[in-house]
Design a protein that fits this description.
This protein is an alpha/beta fold. The chain contains 15 helices and 22 strands. The strands form six sheets. Strands 12-15-16-11-10-18-19 form a seven-stranded mixed sheet, with helices on both faces. Strand 5, helix 5 and strand 6 form a beta-alpha-beta unit. Helix 1 crosses helix 7, helix 3 crosses helix 4 and helix 4 runs parallel beside helix 5. Bound molecules: glyceraldehyde-3-phosphate. Glyceraldehyde-3-phosphate (G3H) binds next to loops.
Length: 487
């Protein structure tokens, strides 16, 4: 309702991963602050969502689809006006480079447009009547209730909106908590939210998740929970809900996607894909390639080419021309990467690229480690950053064993040009992961493709089309067809 726009309560400072020269040497930039809500304020936002959902005839959940679409279109037009501000904040808040920040913004707008088109199509198909065994049936797609939407810091706009927009457009009311970092960039959109939607339909909350989100989940008033983050974080929050069996969840969680380089392979293509797969946005993507299995026959040339490509990636500030490697936004991340690297080196791996692992403040130069083996933390843990573990292998069974016994099951990449061998592996892995990429890096897009995973990697499927189903349910209106009104 715009209350956050005139917030008088406590504030939390927002720091940038960027350090700039100051009087006392390099100083971390403080970008601004956001409201710091406590549990009561978060529950008030939730109650506004509950009330907006319960408002009866003509209110958001029962509004005609065409009308809801108009609200979303109005929001989109206002959002487009904020492109420059949001892109700039993506660079300053999470260190995403200019090209990828622009891409994130534009991809989000495209996602909204595609969602509107997909809903029109879904609505056309759902409105059909069917006559079966003397019963006339019509399916209505209806919302679920109140949705809690939480996104990740690596795609604070795009991935958050891939649940927020479908939740809204299907008629749910929403409580939305921006990501931990990438939080200021929602500020330019607050007026657009307020002016585009009826009061209470979308409620933004800021503050410590442990206080705010925990209270919201424990209230039992959330019907659908959309969360992109860690498996343990999602599990802890779900446990708080008093009626978990009534909670629908759409979760994007942990991943350790392997890139598997087979002996017969187009090595240049494999290296090109593996570099962007492992290092775009410094490896801070759930879909990043997080471990590379390379056949011993091609290990040496693969590493040579990979390290040469890596050396050509430009480090710098996110807004500088052509920069690929940028500072990391998570406090403590550099220490964590150092600990993984030290553990791997102590257990026999070597850093094979020049300068790998060097660091300063929030910047960490990527390190390629080989040979990585099962006893190392890096073999199992999701590093979510610029460390590239390489596991040389002789027999493909070693790789099959890794995939089958991994706790993760999001995606994998197969690099090879022997169709029979690639085909056998596709068969072996098809029930282990959500997506198999052949001669290509792992990735979420195109956004019309299903995005999901197995094991600890996901719950539910998201995509332009799938998300509309995640945030709705079918109600059947069945009319007994009377003999005397058959004409
Ligand atoms: O961080 C997880 C994202 O879903 C990755 O998306 O593959 O488009 O970079 P992306």
């Amino acid at each position: 309702n715009g209350e956050l726009l005139s917030w008088q309560g406590p504030l939390a400072a927002v720091r940038s991963p960027v350090f700039l020269a100051g009087e006392k040497g390099d100083e971390q930039v403080v970008l601004g602050s956001t409201p710091l809500l406590d549990a009561d304020a978060a529950l008030a936002a939730l109650d506004a969502a509950v009330a907006a959902y319960d408002h009866g005839q003509g209110a958001w959940p029962t509004m005609r689809v065409a009308e809801r679409i108009q609200h979303v279109e109005k929001f989109l037009a206002r959002m487009r006006e904020q492109r420059e501000a949001v892109v700039r904040l993506l660079m300053w808040e999470i260190g995403k480079n200019l090209k990828d920040s622009e891409k994130e913004f534009d991809r989000t707008c495209d996602y909204i447009v595609d969602t509107i088109e997909a809903l029109k199509e879904l609505d056309r198909r759902s409105s059909r009547f069917e006559l079966e065994q003397g019963t006339l049936g019509q399916i209505r797609r209806v919302p679920l209730g109140v949705a809690l939407c939480m996104g990740p810091y690596n795609y604070p706009l795009n991935e958050t909106f891939t649940t927020l927009i479908p939740a809204l457009i299907m008629g749910n009311t929403v409580v939305f908590k921006p990501a931990k970092f990438g939080v200021l960039l929602i500020r330019p959109l607050l007026e657009a939210f307020r002016d585009s939607f009826p009061a209470g339909v979308i409620n933004v909350i800021y503050g410590r998740g442990r206080e705010t989100v925990s209270a919201i989940m424990a209230s039992g008033k959330v019907d659908v929970f959309a969360f992109i983050g860690t498996h343990s974080g999602a599990a802890d929050l779900k446990k708080l809900h008093p009626r978990p069996h009534r909670l629908r969840a759409a979760l994007g969680l942990d991943a350790k996607n392997p890139g598997i380089v087979l002996p017969k392979v187009d090595l240049d293509n494999a290296v090109n894909e593996a570099i962007t797969g492992a290092l775009s946005f410094n490896g801070q993507r759930c879909t990043a390639l997080k471990i590379l299995f390379v056949h011993e026959d091609v290990l040496e040339p693969f590493l040579d080419k990979f390290c040469a490509k890596l050396a050509a990636l430009k480090p710098g500030m996110p807004w500088e021309d052509g920069v690929a490697l940028t500072p990391l936004p998570e406090p403590g991340k550099v220490d964590y990467l150092n600990a993984l690297l030290a553990d791997a080196v102590a257990k026999g791996a070597k850093v094979v690229n020049e300068g790998g692992g060097s660091h300063r403040q929030s910047f960490f130069y990527p390190a390629v480690l080989s040979p990585v083996s099962p006893a190392m933390r890096l073999y199992n843990e999701e590093q979510f950053g610029p460390l590239i573990p390489v596991v040389p292998y002789r027999e493909v069974e070693e790789v099959i064993d890794y995939v089958l016994h991994s706790d993760y099951g999001q995606q994998l990449s197969l690099f090879g040009n022997d169709p029979a061998q690639v085909g056998r592996l596709v068969d072996a892995f098809a029930n282990q992961v959500g997506r198999i990429n052949i001669n290509a890096q792992c990735q979420r897009g195109p956004d019309t493709f299903p995005f999901n995973g197995r094991k600890n990697s996901a719950e539910g499927t998201l995509s332009v089309h799938d998300a509309l189903r995640v945030f709705s349910i079918r109600t059947l209106v069945a009319t007994k067809f009377q003999a005397d009104n058959k004409e």
